[in-house]
Design brief:
The strands form two sheets. A two-stranded antiparallel ribbon has the order 1-2. Strands 3-4 form a two-stranded antiparallel sheet. The chain is mostly helical and 255 residues long. It starts with a helix and ends with a helix. Helices cover 45% and strands 6% of the residues. It is built from eight helices and four strands.
Length: 255
């Protein structure tokens, strides 16, 4: 009877029942049979996920290496917060939002810098003085259009951050009066998903026209995105230093 009970509990850690690898690691815990005869019972020792560190070889260092306010629950959280910026949970949430948005812009900028120079031959830091390289508009027109569009988008994101789902309204856009387009399909701040923000269904599936998020895919993509975002922000910092010396990324690569 005890062996059958142990097998049953161990079976809870199967991929069929748990789905994600994170759930499997928590459920696939040691099983022990305690007692004898009719009083025997099965005990499951659940083990939480191991907290990762940005300095895995260092055990000392206190909050510098292992800050207690970072529990590893955020994607890409390796306990790096030497200035203690995330001690306040409200600030931690805001800093993650800022990191995510800046990282997405950095990824877009890195691709744009390479493609823009490869297409026009004009360095990215000189493209503003030669708008004909990218568009037949004056610099003032480009700047005004960008401020108008960016102001509209950022204002809606700002309001939605403090009041989630408040921007999911029918008049959200003049060209689409469907509130579903701006609704958060995943329930996670900063990851709206849905048919509008995930048209290729990378983090979900479409069932009869309804977007259904896939938690396992979403968690994997969150980690991949934040890693690429951080690399892109570091790349942009290097691009700025290169531009100060009159160099370009393609020039540094000898292209």
């Amino acid at each position: 009877m005890a062996s059958a009970s142990a097998a049953l509990v161990n079976g809870l850690g199967s991929a069929f029942l748990t789905g994600s690898k994170k759930s499997q690691s928590r459920l696939a815990a040691p099983v022990a049979v305690v007692g004898t005869g009719a009083s025997r019972r099965v005990v499951v020792a659940a083990v939480s996920a191991t907290k990762k560190s940005w300095l895995p070889g260092v055990k000392a260092g206190g909050s510098l290496v292992d800050p207690e306010w970072l529990d590893g629950s955020l994607p890409g959280d390796y306990g790096f917060d030497p200035l203690g910026l995330g001690k306040d949970p409200a600030f931690l949430k805001w800093y993650r939002e800022a990191e995510l948005i800046h990282g997405r812009w950095a990824m877009t900028a890195v691709v744009g810098i390479f493609i823009g120079q490869a297409w026009s031959g004009i360095p990215w830091f000189e493209a503003g003085a030669a708008p004909g390289a990218v568009a037949p508009f004056s610099f003032g027109t480009l700047l005004g259009t960008q401020l108008l569009l960016m102001g509209w988008v950022e204002s809606k994101r700002w309001v939605d951050y403090f009041n989630p789902e408040s921007q999911s309204i029918e008049w959200a856009t003049p060209w689409s009066r469907t509130a579903e387009n701006f609704a958060n399909a995943t329930g996670d701040q900063g990851y709206p998903g849905g048919k509008f923000f995930d048209p290729l269904s990378f983090a979900g599936t479409l069932n009869n026209g309804v977007y259904v998020p896939d938690t396992e895919k979403l968690e994997r993509l969150k980690l991949a995105e934040i890693k690429h975002a951080r690399l892109a922000m570091v790349a942009m910092l290097i691009f700025y230093f290169e531009a100060g010396q009159g160099k370009t990324p393609l020039g540094a690569l000898g292209l």
